[in-house]
Amino acid sequence: MVNLTQPALLCFGSVPKEPSFRHHFLQVLAYLQAYKEAFASEKAFGVLSETLYELLQLGWEERQEEDSLLIERILLLVRNVLHVPADLDQEKRIDDDASVHDRLLWAIHLSGLDDLLLFLASSTAEHQWSLHVLEIISLIFRDQNPEQLAGVGQGRLAQERRTAVAELEVLRQREMAEKKTRALQRGNRHSRFGGSYIVQGLKSIGERDLIFHKGLHNLQNYTSDLGKQPRRVPKRRQAARELSVQRRSALNVRLFLRDFCSEFLENCYNRLMGSVKDHLLREKAQQHDETYYMWALAFFMAFNRAASFRPGLVSETLTVRTFHFIEQNLTNYYEMMLTDRKEATSWARRMHLALKAYQELLATVNEMNVSPDEAVRESSRIIQNNIFYVMEYRELFLALFRKFDERCQPRSFLRDLVETTHLFLKMLERFCRSRGNLMVQNKRKKRKKKKKVLDQSVASGNVPYSPEELESVWPSLAEQLQCCAQDPELSLDSMVPFDAASEVPVEEQRAEAMVRIQDCLLAGQAPQALTLLRSAREVWPEGDVFGSQDISPEEEIQLLKQIVWAPLPRQQGPEEQGAEEEDEEEVEEEELHVVEVLEKEFNFLDYLKRFANSTVIQAYVLLLRGYKQNSAHTNHCVVKMLHRLAYDLKMEALLFQLSLFCLFNRLLSDPAAGAYKELVTFARYILGKFFALAVVNQKAFVELLFWKNTAVVREMTEGYGSLDGG
């Protein structure tokens, strides 16, 4: 049964693209969904829980190898059945209705299997099943929201009621506006002769004014795009789709899950998370098992914060070491997403889990900061001091915004990133005010000069060797490359062909990657050169610069030969340029970059200036476009950041952009604009600043077409050429 219920994705590796294999995949998935419905029975889980209970009654000295194997198989079978995805089109369940997954959970509860899972999670003697138990628990709570789950059975909170009333008011205002518009459009008497009108000031295809053939009430809906075919977006440029769907289960299931969470936090959380972390650090777990750890951290810490906040229940994960662990994984996923383009969506999903865990850690520390217990507040201050001191924690959000890619990262990732950044900045600002002055770690690259003897052949041209020397070196290189090309164990993961931390975009680092390949070949490092070539081909497949995807080993060797002989452009320092004018052998100073760690006083506004970047602002504007679907808190986070840039830094000209102004126009003409008072106030403030500047600088209207950096903003406001004068 374990073999029959294996997840379809595990069998096929990924969703097949080839039609016949895709058909088999969907057929297997349909079988699994039928299995899941059949398993939603108290009798089936009753047999499993009774067998598991009898096996767990045996002490370690009485338990045979077959017994341990049977325990593992029962846990795997439960995991496989819970893992089957819901068929939303077939079920068509609404919130508060019992889906197949809910019926399965209720069968688990009635059979007593949930109590056995809690026992396995809390028992020190059964620590070898920690990862199995954590995976099952993550699948049980797959569709649940921890904050909503914590409030089940306690009556509707005042905050929830206010939110529901506000949402209904927005819908009512929109409905009233639509009714009013329809009433205005409906004439007293139908006429087939609506007439034609000339719209003055609006040009048609030629030089004449536009002729409008419909009724005047339709004029406000006119656009030049009417009747045109919508432009088809290529598949690889389409925005990423949301994969996780949250729904409200039936009330009895939610009550059972709430009690399970409370018991788990009371008796199991700290022990289980410590055991799982130990497995991960000792590499006893399977690949990517850390994602279950991060999910559990985010979910149960959020539940604890929303139910009755008790930091002691989650003390195992409330440490600086946990922050470091999450930050390391987040950075690793981020780099792998940029490198492994084929699996970029999977890496982005893991990155989202890590970001949620990081967000929940910050939220819990922030909650500790307002605790009535002085010891808890002191612990919060110590953790914050450690986080704000280390440079990597402060730079993390900037890197994530700079490399945000909506093709593989869904809108929910951007929403969580914006909310986490808002929370981090709020905590950092408050901490700076309470401390007066904050010393932080700062790293900089120090240039260290090293003397070396440089041959004229190196200083004089782009190719480090003469053609004769290359002819003599190539045969041995070719032999090494032929051996490496046949090696199936040559890994692509060991070498990254670009610098993820560089300010230069990844797309523009191709030339540097080519130079690195040439340097490896000239240094006699054939395996590294071949690995770099293949990695570069994965990152930059456009134009087949590094060879086509189906290139043969012989063609790869020929391509590497061309790279060896190619006169690639290399960046030269001033010393190297001076060296070209001197004798054949001379002493030149080579600059080496050494990272130097310093301490400096932290300035919050200087840190905020790092966010005054067009890439960051574009991400915020992208999220703001869905202001109707966003929660009130998400809209507040977006406006607060834009307000910081416009008001605190006096850089409102950064937001003078036509696409943002179109969004403001849509917002101000929205019938339900009264529900978005903060957004409306901010939009009017920015528009007022723009029209005040337009009186002085007529070119401001042209500047609307472009995203701007801080230098352009200064020229716009202080006068063109002011930078040259400075």
TrEMBL record:
Listed GO CC annotations: replication fork protection complex
Quick one: where is this thing mainly located? Answer: nucleus
Compartment(s) where it occurs, according to its Swiss-Prot or TrEMBL record: Nucleus
- Indicate yes or no for the key word Cell cycle: yes
Has the keyword DNA damage been applied to this entry?
no
Q: Which InterPro entries match?
A: Timeless, Timeless_N
Q: Which GO terms describe its molecular function?
A: DNA binding
Q: Which GO terms describe its biological process?
A: DNA repair; DNA replication checkpoint signaling; replication fork arrest
Q: Which UniProt keywords apply?
A: Cell cycle, Nucleus
Pfam families xref list: TIMELESS
Q: Which residues form a coiled coil?
A: none
What is the official name of this protein in its record? Protein timeless homolog isoform X2
What organism does this protein naturally occur in? Physeter macrocephalus
